[in-house]
């Protein structure tokens, strides 16, 4: 067992969080990550409802039999924080408040008895979340799938570890035991993984997404805002999203098209014209495997690597 502050604080068997991927991480995925000894997070995206949170939390707890984690987008809470009330009503052990300043919400999370964590993409982000009083910080690198920043995981992780006394997790580009062992050896308390779980049958979202990911190589992604613009998702401009490249990105990424044009061309039911957010470890995902198996293999391989003689 890899013993870190994360495993001790949350009484986990392995230092792995399942990323709160909006539209992909529901109760089944979160529950299976927890059942394997980590902690799965529900992805409570901007369009999630209190009923969705309650239903998926119940599924996660039934499967995982352990703590519950939920991820929220801070910039969306700034417009309407009612979803945080719904999340806290489920008595989570951990709430992720990322992509914005979590200061208005951390006290409420703590008052509910939960830990507050935030993903950061720069040292300026780190200072913001430190002032807010979060318990853990996640250094999320440019390799990550979905919305992320522009600095690679390894440079960012080193910067953050040197710059804070907070316990640090790593995210972005971690898809095997080698990745987990690397960030633990660097000083991280664990990892948040997302893309490695996206071919698991427990994910929600379009049926074609798992197959597209399995087919993709690690060079087959693009960092872009066109999918947000096509779907009228008001993400702040500083965060693009890493997705699998397809015909849609070939046609429209970097072309300067307006939102109306992008929306007319977008089709979420078509694998060539819809979005599959995924990170640069796509090439390491070569088959459809249960999420619990993915987590156990990553943890077991990491422990073996960390114990090997040098």
Automatic annotation (TrEMBL):
The keyword Oxidoreductase applies. Keywords: Flavoprotein, FMN, Monooxygenase, Oxidoreductase. It comes from Rhodococcus xishaensis. Transmembrane segments: none annotated. Gene3D superfamilies: Aldolase class I. This is Nitronate monooxygenase. GO terms for molecular function: nitronate monooxygenase activity. It holds the Pfam family NMO. PANTHER family: 2-NITROPROPANE DIOXYGENASE (PTHR32332), 2-NITROPROPANE DIOXYGENASE FAMILY, PUTATIVE (AFU_ORTHOLOGUE AFUA_2G09850)-RELATED (PTHR32332:SF31). The keyword Oxidoreductase applies.
């Amino acid at each position: 067992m890899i013993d870190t502050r994360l495993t001790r604080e949350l009484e986990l068997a392995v230092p792995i969080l399942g990323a709160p991927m909006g539209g992909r991480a529901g109760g089944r995925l979160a529950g299976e990550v927890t059942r394997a000894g980590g902690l799965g997070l529900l992805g409570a995206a901007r369009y999630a409802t209190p009923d969705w949170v309650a239903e998926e939390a119940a599924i996660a707890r039934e499967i995982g039999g352990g703590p519950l984690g939920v991820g929220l987008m801070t910039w969306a809470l700034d417009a309407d924080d009612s979803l945080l009330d719904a999340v806290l009503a489920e008595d989570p052990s951990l709430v992720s408040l990322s992509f914005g300043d979590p200061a208005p919400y951390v006290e409420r999370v703590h008052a509910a008895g939960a830990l507050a964590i935030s993903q950061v993409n720069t040292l300026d982000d780190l200072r913001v979340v430190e002032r807010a009083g979060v318990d853990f910080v996640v250094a999320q690198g440019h390799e990550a799938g979905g919305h992320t920043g522009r600095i690679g995981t390894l440079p960012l992780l080193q910067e953050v570890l040197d710059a804070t006394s907070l316990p640090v997790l790593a995210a972005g580009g971690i898809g095997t035991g080698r990745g987990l062992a690397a960030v633990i050896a660097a000083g991280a308390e664990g990892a948040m993984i997302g893309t490695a779980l996206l071919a698991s049958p427990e994910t929600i979202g379009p049926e074609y997404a798992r197959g597209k990911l399995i087919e993709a190589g690690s060079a087959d992604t693009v960092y872009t805002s066109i999918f947000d613009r096509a779907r009228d998702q008001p993400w702040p401009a500083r965060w693009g999203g890493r997705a699998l490249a397809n015909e849609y990105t070939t046609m429209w990424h970097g072309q300067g098209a307006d939102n109306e044009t992008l929306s007319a061309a977008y089709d979420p039911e078509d694998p060539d014209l819809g979005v599959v957010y995924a990170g640069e470890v796509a090439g390491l995902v070569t088959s459809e495997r249960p999420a619990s198996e993915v987590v156990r293999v990553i943890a077991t391989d990491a422990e073996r690597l960390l114990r090997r003689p040098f």
